[in-house]
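Training component of the fellowship. As part of building independent skills, the fellow (R.M.) carried out the full modelling exercise for a liganded target. The chosen ligand was adenosine-5'-triphosphate. The inputs are recorded below so that the supervisory panel can assess the work.
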Amino acid sequence: MKMIITTDRILAVPLPPRPPRVRLTAVDAGYGRRPVLCEVTLDIPALGVTSLTGPNGSGKSTLLGVIAGVIRPTSGTVHHGSGQAPAFVPQRSTAGDMLPLTVRRTVEMGRWHARGPWRRLTSSDHSAVDEALDRLGITHLATRQLGELSGGQRQRALMAQGTAQQSDLLLLDEPCTGLDPEARHGIEHLLADIAAEGTTVVQATHDLTAARAGHHCLLLRDGRLEAAGAPADVLAPALSAGPVHHRTE
Ligand SMILES: Nc1ncnc2c1ncn2[C@@H]1O[C@H](COP(=O)(O)OP(=O)(O)OP(=O)(O)O)[C@@H](O)[C@H]1O
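Fellow's submitted model of the complex:
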């Protein structure tokens, strides 16, 4: 809502609706011959935090992969409202932890979209990396090897890599898994701040408190979109249906 102040009164003028940042239409996707997503049609609003929730195996990570462009749909369309490549923070895998990478080098990889992997980083790239390390509270870990860190510290390093990309679309797969309550709180505040700065944030989460705190919610079940809309509306039937969601921490 935009406020126009005239000499004697305030007029509230509704802002024109923004087109969605991402629109999926009748998307099917899976792995080889294994179908996972079925006829998924949804919009990701351009502003705020969208939470993607649903039981284990319902297809949240697969959907994030489709939006990120790393999983190609077998049918249907994915339309991005801007030309920027999404920043994608996948679920932490233990394989990558064995790579001989410092935290700083890991975060620098977030600049490869802008610079290419073999080009020297510019001073603005280094500033973006410094800012991301600082926002995630891991500047003091910059010279440590990724494999030496605790699970929560590694998770923050991967999130710093995602934020260093400075995309207008940040996709996160269960970003708070493995974090203690204080760190989880910190990440939730950070995501709210990033969204307030104009970045579209999409996070897959089992955490209903986090999902409720978002602006928009998508509920998946068995690879189909069961509900979409305001978090309170989407989550109420899911809660009354039984404990299909749980914190994994
Ligand atoms: N690389 C893969 N190859 C084959 N099948 C996969 C692969 N990744 C996921 N699947 C299958 O796809 C289905 C959906 O998995 P996905 O990880 O998208 O669900 P999810 O909702 O993110 O689950 P969780 O909450 O447990 O993280 C599951 O049945 C899973 O076994």
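The panel noted the following from the submitted structure. Residues 31, 34, 36, 54, 56-62 surround adenosine-5'-triphosphate (CB under 6 Å). Helices lie at 60-68, 103-108, 112-115, 123-135, 151-164, 181-196, 208-213, 231-241.
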